[in-house]
Amino acid sequence: MNKFITRCLSLLSFVLLTNSWGYSQLTTSTLTSTQDSYIDSRLSTNNFGGNSSMSSSTYMYGSRGGAQYYRRSFVEFDLADIPANATIYSASLDVTRTGGVAGNTTWQTKLITSSWSENSITSSIQPTISTLSTNHVETTPDPISYVDQMDVTSMVQRMVSGQIENNGWSIQVNHESYSGSTGASFWTSEHGTESYQPKLVVQYYIPLSIAAATVSHESSTGAADGSVSFTLAGGSSSSYTYTWINGATGAQISSNTSSKAVALTGQSYGWYGLHVTGTNGENFYQGFIIGQDCEEVTITYQPDNNYADNAYTFDWDTGNIDYTSTPIPNSTALLAQSWTHSGTWTKRISWLNFKLWVDDELDITQADMTLTGYNHASLTGTNESQFDIVTEGWNENYLTW
């Protein structure tokens, strides 16, 4: 239950319903590798960090067919200049071959999970490489082209958001056990021509948000003259679809596609939901409260999952799944738990954020949050939960322990 009183101010009748928006566009950041090298399984102690080329290949060496060996390329980029809250629209790892590929080689681009140095990496001293399928990209390039492009959008998004550490990638041939010669060499950052050096081309935008909003509250019971106008920030599309709903019923009030933000007008007190979508993938939800001038009203904000963020973080690495770095958004339950696995204490912590814009002109006389419990296991300890205020922004899709 939430009770609001709207202060009686003549300024409330002065509302501009023409919305403004400083449009953003996709930002393209072209990064050159900060370090790159390769390793050769035959030359296990050799370092090639100063070479102007690197190799991802297999080959045979020795008499009578010889033994089989492989080479792997390693490359890393500095992502510090990309904002932590950016939505990554695309990210392409581009490497230029020094020569053609023997056949249609398939590359495996794999996330590196520990730090390394191009001046010390060898076959016997390699960084760890992820075995998770979500951290692998398989690419079969056009053999005619001399620039191979690997789509690493998902991994860059998680790097920027802080979900996984940025140690770069290893580029390998698909079958390192292949008995024969396959693969290719690529130019490194030591090459004198910048256009030949490894690149990471990232397109991104800042997510949509409410920069400012003006609410005109219902003037009297039954007047139905409340309104909401707003200013958006972020995003990258040239036009958007704006859908307003009645929060209490879920019924759609209006839906418009426009290059200008579309205000809500002619409404009674209550909460209303705004849904904004864009052609570049923007998908934004925001709830608003319309009160009633000089009157106390009770409004229940019980939104669906779109108008509230919820997630939980898990302090457990099973060996097969590392939950400490795995987002768990949109959970059907909020979990506050602590228990032991083989003598090791493990915790779950839940996060909840209501996407609700409350006008400064409202006096909040009472605000109650109700959570319905369904499983309480106290064991031998207390069953109390602790509520803390979160002091910075978070995204339920990337939040991890």
Your description of this structure?
With 401 residues, the chain is mostly beta strands. Helices cover 2% and strands 41% of the residues. It has one helix and 25 strands. The chain has one helix at residues 153-160; strands at residues 2-6, 27-32, 35-40, 53-61, 67-76, 87-96, 107-111, 136-139, 147-151, 169-173, 182-187, 199-205, 209-216, 226-233, 240-246, 252-258, 264-267, 270-278, 283-290, 296-299, 308-314, 337-341, 344-354, 356-357, 362-367. It is elongated.
Global geometry: elongated
* Parts with pLDDT < 50 across at least 5 consecutive residues: 9-23
Q: What is the number of beta strands?
A: 25
Mean of pLDDT: 88
What Rg is obtained from the alpha carbons, in whole angstroms? 28 Å
Question: Count the helices. How many?
Answer: 1
The helix/strand series, from N terminus to C terminus, equals EEEEEEEEEHEEEEEEEEEEEEEEEE
- Helix/strand/pairing category: mainly beta
Beta-strand proportion: 35-45%
Name the helicity range.
Answer: under 10%
Largest sheet: 7 strands, antiparallel
Distance between the termini: 32 Å
Task: Chart the SSEs and their pairings.
Layout lengths: L1 E5 L20 E6 L2 E6 L12 E9 L5 E10 L10 E10 L10 E5 L24 E4 L7 E5 L1 H8 L8 E5 L8 E6 L11 E7 L3 E8 L9 E8 L6 E7 L5 E7 L5 E4 L2 E9 L4 E8 L5 E4 L8 E7 L22 E5 L2 E11 L1 E2 L4 E6 L34
Parallel strand pairs: 19-24
Antiparallel strand pairs: 1-20, 1-25, 2-12, 3-5, 4-5, 4-11, 5-10, 6-9, 6-12, 7-8, 7-10, 13-14, 14-17, 15-16, 15-18, 18-19, 21-23, 22-23
